[in-house]
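Summary for the steering committee. One of the milestones for this cycle was to obtain a three-dimensional model of the protein with coenzyme A bound, which we needed before selecting residues for the alanine scan. The sequence and ligand used are listed below.
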Amino acid sequence: MPWVVREAVRDINRAVGRRWRAVDPLLPDPGTLPAGCGEPLVVTGDNGRTAGLGVCVHQHIPPQSLNQTWGAADRFTLVPRLPGQDVTTTASLLLAQWRDHLSGIGATRGPDTSASVVWPSLDITGIQALLRHGLQPFTVIAARTRPNGPPRPPRRAYGVTIRAAGPADEEQVLDLELRLIRYDMHFGGPVWRSATARLVRDEIRDSLTHSDPWTWLAERNGRAVGLIVAQPPQEAGWIAGMTSQSPAAYLQTMFIDAQERGTGIGAALVRNLHARLDDMGVAVTLLHHSQVNPLSAPFWYRMGYRPLWTSWEARPASALR
Ligand SMILES: CC(C)(COP(=O)(O)OP(=O)(O)OC[C@H]1O[C@@H](n2cnc3c(N)ncnc32)[C@H](O)[C@@H]1OP(=O)(O)O)[C@@H](O)C(=O)NCCC(=O)NCCS
């Protein structure tokens, strides 16, 4: 990157940092821009100065990676840096440049592709531009901060026991995990791959052999009816940079059998986990949920979470306009 651009990036990052802090104190400082596929896309303002920047990152997720189940195989992500009070116009110009850039890349034309922008959920300026360019709100990263008051005792669900899962529970955990993926597929996020079941099983088998796998089952009469899986801060480093607070934990999986929903089992599992996280001094817990999952958003917000980042996507990538 030429030094003039590097200087502009530094100044813009600072301005974006001020903007993000004002919008949402849980947002991190904007990190250094990733290398991207080429020179940054630059929007020049009427005064001739750089009004905004963006870098396009191309990712091919191989079929042997479980990550391919969580989205398209070829992902094109715009990482924007937009300072200023109202970023609608600059965002629109940047998205138009990005669309033109992607239209020259053959790999964006396939069906198994996505174009996405991860946007601060509380930053409402710019949303008009995202919508106008064909992006849809897909996935939310929601956050819960450690409450200040005295801990509330975990709520109990009548007739249900919560216990840590171990290696002997592989089949039950797998069954609940796969049902969650199939449920989430209704919302257009995950894609069932030929290797999905095997890769999920491998991940579960590996994790359940650890001495403390952070996987809990809710059981009624000895039958598993609910599952929660989380990552303690030492395993959640991959997402910790999405927030200003640390240490950060990640809530990975939550599923209750359809017949058992609405009876307090989900809350009991979550409060059991929260008691542990609060006790450990975890400052913030993050999770992903589909924006349009009608069960998860009301539940998570009842459990103390709120939106932090929203991933806006066009699938396939050629739907970007
Ligand atoms: C989301 C899910 C885990 C909730 O579990 P649950 O056992 O049904 O939830 P609970 O009965 O413990 O409800 C806890 C609280 O949330 C509220 N709540 C739960 N689901 C709700 C919904 N869809 N709408 C409004 N409130 C809801 C309950 O009323 C209850 O409130 P209260 O504390 O005032 O009584 C469950 O619906 C589920 O497994 N859904 C399918 C998979 C899924 O969406 N997983 C999350 C993926 S991110």
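Key point for the committee: The mean pLDDT is 95.
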